[in-house]
Amino acid sequence: MSEIETIENEALGAVAAASDLAALDAVRVAELGKKGRISGLMKTLGSMSPEERQTMGPALNGLRNRVQEAVEARKAELEEAELEKRLQTERIDMTLPPRAIPEGRLHPVMQVFEEVAAIFGDMGFTVAEGPDIEDDWHNFTALNFPEGHPARETHDTFFFHPQQGAAPKVLRTHTSPVQVRVMETQKPPIRILVPGRVYRNDWDATHTPMFHQVEGLVIDKAIHMGHLKGCLIDFVKEFFEVANVEARFRPHFFPFTEPSAEMDVKYRKVGESIEIGEGDSWMEILGSGMVHPNVLSNCGIDPDEYQGFAFGMGIDRLAMLKYGMPDLRPYFEADAGWTRHYGFRPWLSPSVAGGLS
Amino acid sequence: MKFTLSWLQDYLATKASLDDILATMVKAGLEVEEVEDPGAKLAEFTVAKVKSAEPHPDADRLRICTVDTKDGEKQIVCGAPNARAGMTAIYAPLGTWIPGLDFALDKKPRKIRGIESHGMLCSTKEIEAGEDHDGIADLEGDWAVGTPAAEALGLTDPVIDFEVTPNRPDWLGVYGIARDLAAAGAGRFLETPIRKAEGSAPCPIDIRLEAPEACPVFAGALVRGVKNGPSPEWLQLRLKAIGITPKNLLVDLTNYISHDRARPLHAYDAAKLKGAVVARLGRKGETLEALDGKTYDISEDMCVIADDSGVIGLGGVMGGQATAVSEETTDVFIESAWFEPLRTARTGRATGIISDARYRFERGVDPASCLEGLNFALAIIREYGGGDVSLAKVAGTPPERDVKVSFDRRDIGRLTGLEVKPADLKKMLKDLGFGIEDAGEAWYLSVPSWRFDIEQSADIVEEVARLVGYDRLPTTSLPLPPEGRKVVVTPAQARLRTARRVMASRGFLEAVTWSFMPKAHAELFGGGSDALTISNPVASELNQMRPSVLPNLAVAAQKGFDRGEREMRLFEAGPVYIGDGPKDQRNVVAALVRPVAERHWSGPVPAYDAIAAKADLFALLQELDQPPERFQVEAPRQPHWHPGQAACLKLGPKVTVAHFGALHPRVLKALDVDGPVYGFELNLNALPMMKARATKTRPVLQRSDLTPIRRDFAFVVDEGVPAADIVRHATSADKKLISNVLVFDVYQGTGIEPGKKSVAIEVTIQPEGETLKDKDIEAIAEKIVESVAKGTGGVLRG
């Protein structure tokens, strides 16, 4: 056996025998390091005759390469073994609970506001707003509620203390004053939707002193009551997300519309819940009508040139009907259990294209 | 308003079924609220004849009756003392539900003291058809076996209750209802004018009108020698059916005419009148003991009826006790007047009296009906009470209500999209009582005296549309406006929506709480001004418009905790009020946390604190496109924040955008809330609107290829020095190259002298263009130390 073979056997044996990375590195240094045995042999090539070099060069290079490969291979082996060993110790009980991240929820009324806005937005409406504290003119007089008229009394109005000379301010009893504010400042055509808080002095199982309404107003030159019906039937179908809603309009009285109508939809009770659209009973869901000529005149719009319709609906009740809350009162109690149960996930953003709910 | 079907049929000739009549009512705008068919719930009960009633061998009080029923002859054991052979009784077969006893008879015959009983004989109380419970019903009249009990009891007349809208006082009388339903196609209106009563002599009682603006017309007549006993049975039945307890003829007939013709009357005991009857305004200091037994102070705004003794009635509202009719009354003076609606309403509100007369006068009584109403009363008195009737005396004249409406027929199509033939149109309007002067396109309509709601063409359009039926109107989807859809919400509304989603995504539950709160709470939060106090609150603790949402959230959080909730995180996006003007409302986002330290197996979890509230606020601002760096953090300016653990966020010297941190312990105590409680309130109206970008294209990304360098510094400063000052001064040492300064440690204790603290920062230096050499970095470090030292007095910690 030549010297080279002996060295190779010894080196490969040492590599194979190395039991950890440190031992392997010691072998590598001893053989292939600057002062290593094989490196030492490589240095002797310089002093050899060309003939000797011709045979010894390839032999020594071969030796060095094979040992190097063996070291690399062994290193990979040992690293793999070491990782396996470490993994055996790196154990976490993955059934343990993570840190709790509190979950937020959106209030159903606010969500339903957005659902309603999405549907009417698709019909070309934009959202307008006005103040909760109103004056007599905007809440009543401009809307054709004559002073002292019994229709005013039906509103159970909250009043502020009167100030010198002026009628006391009121908490708006409906969102209709925003109609007036918009018509006073904006030229037709008008197509607005007014969501907001409204107030009436009434508190029992089916009334709360504060509740929410959405008001709609469409003013143009050729808008008639057929449009009112079409628009609201389209809305109800979209809102309740059902293919068919049987609806009826019947005459009613509102001082600010003429003709006036209430809209009923058919429903049936299924156990505790209510199915809207078909069934054996009617439920009133909103009031509407053609804007009264006196209201248009009061707002500086010529009723001979422009006409249109308005509607108003209680959002709290619409939310109840769609989502089945049995009672109005917890709406305003900031009750965590109720909000978690009936509330909406933060990123559920209603749209006609992406679905309302 | 309640009425019965047979009553309606006095004035409506119809073959329509009850359901059809109800449908016509709804179509015409008479919103049916309830229909009570008294016969329907008595369907199981029928007339039976008792053939024999023998004593029970084992029970003294029981009788064994042999009864002839619709089901054949039955043996029925009965406990009623009045059970006797030959009586006509009401029979319930086995298995029947007995409403008054709230149980059902067994389906199989049951033995009572050993004797089988095959059904039950009932009292009227047991079948909820009367109050009689001393024994079983003992029916009068010769009823065939098997006749429905309802028929034998006279309970076949359905009672209809509907909502009278304030514009239609004429619906407060059955006569007016019939007219409307006939016009709507439910039958033929039976016009029934009242004949003039033939009087014997002029009315000796003088009637004077001293306030024609309040009472312009007053018709009266005297009847002498009346017998004021119970009214006839038909009249009593009708009143009972609509929920009015009959009293005596004179009282009942005024109630009857009020509901029949929507015409209130008043009956005075003429023996108790002194001198002339005067309609005038009230005088200071006058009082009236009214029919309800209460005494009312009279004001100068009220219209009163008076005689020489003083006030004897509130015109159109309620009569007085002193001149009231009773069973002893023999001479009666009937008043049929007209009172001005607004004044009547004011008097009604001022006194709080609710009466059928007030209800009708404040909505409007047909001014032309004075004489008719009086004659109607006189006719009934003469027929059922006898007596000597005087001639009617009329003072004043009915107010002129000659309303003419110019009606453009094209308005029907213009406003409703409906086409109606002129002939149909004419019929409908005539049926409603309108006079028509046909002048081609425009018609001139004279409005009937009982209609106060018709002023213009649009009102006529409604009449036509409701009589035709809204279901016949076209249904047309709303065409999109020519310019197409717009962005539905304004930027401010969009911001509110984003804010709500940010807060919910950060673990907060959305609340919607009252806009009002106890005045005391409002005062704690910087509000409570009198201009924002509600004068008639629904409850005394909800009397003040809120200056902040936080008290509502704090109270709710405590309530939740008391109910067993752990950490409560609530937010509300809604209004607060700083004044009563239209621009004094602000939209805020308020968030509040009542922290509970959660435990975790991995170690302590940091509890929510003032800085966590800051994190939530800043995250919100970031999402609203409001970089938090543009705001200054300063000491709180509102009284409800903890002076040392809260701050306000300002934009320049004037605008305060938000407050955040811990709520003041004293305020929490006053709210009865356990602290600590943290939160913020952000005024969305104070946030500037970000300018709309001219283009949607984003600017090119500028990024250095060179690796940033990070260096740590620790400065010892006075403990009062805000960390933000150190950051600011470090940053300003080289604004071009220093890209970030981060506070990563604040330390007080061993090695730091008392009153001082060590603040450690990590400074990121971002080379631009060329790599920085060691000496460049050294130079920047020196500048940082110098700048911080100069600005804060800080010394590099050795």
- The tally of structural domains of chain A comes to 2
Specify the CATH class of the largest domain in chain B.
Answer: Alpha Beta
CATH class of the largest domain in chain A: Alpha Beta
SS summary, helix count of chain A? 12
Helix and strand composition category of chain A: alpha+beta
Which key features would you list for this structure?
heterodimer, A: 357 residues, alpha+beta, 2 domains, eight-stranded mixed sheet, two-stranded antiparallel sheet, 12 helices, B: 798 residues, OB fold (Dihydrolipoamide Acetyltransferase, E2P), Phenylalanyl-tRNA Synthetase, Chain B, domain 3, 6 domains, seven-stranded mixed sheet, five-stranded antiparallel sheet, 25% helix
Describe this structure in words.
The complex is a heterodimer of chains A (357) and B (798). Chain A has helices at 3-17, 21-32, 37-44, 50-89, 108-122, 136-139, 150-153, 176-185, 225-240, 293-298, 315-323, 336-342, and strands at 126-127, 133-134, 170-171, 190-199, 210-220, 247-251, 257-270, 273-276, 281-291, 307-314. In chain A, β7 (257-270) and β8 (273-276) form a beta hairpin. Chain A contains 12 helices and 10 strands. In chain A, α1 (3-17) packs antiparallel against α2, α1 packs parallel to α4 and α2 (21-32) runs antiparallel to α4 (50-89). With 798 residues, chain B is α+β, with helices and mostly antiparallel strands. Chain B folds into 6 domains: 2-38 and 158-189, Phenylalanyl-tRNA Synthetase, Chain B, domain 1; 40-152, OB fold (Dihydrolipoamide Acetyltransferase, E2P) (Beta Barrel), CATH 2.40.50.140; 207-396, Phenylalanyl-tRNA Synthetase, Chain B, domain 3 (3-Layer(bba) Sandwich); 411-472, Phenylalanyl-tRNA Synthetase, Chain B, domain 1; 491-686, Bira Bifunctional Protein, Domain 2 (BirA Bifunctional Protein, domain 2, 2-Layer Sandwich), CATH 3.30.930; 709-796, Alpha-Beta Plaits, CATH 3.30.70.380. Chain B is built from 19 helices and 42 strands. In chain B, β19 and β20 (295-297) form a beta hairpin. In chain B, α4 packs antiparallel against α11 and α5 (233-241) crosses α6 (249-261). The longest helix of chain B has 19 residues, at 774-792. The relative contact order of chain B is 0.06. At the A-B interface, α5, β1, β2, α7 and β4 of A face α2, α7, α10, α12 and α13 of B.
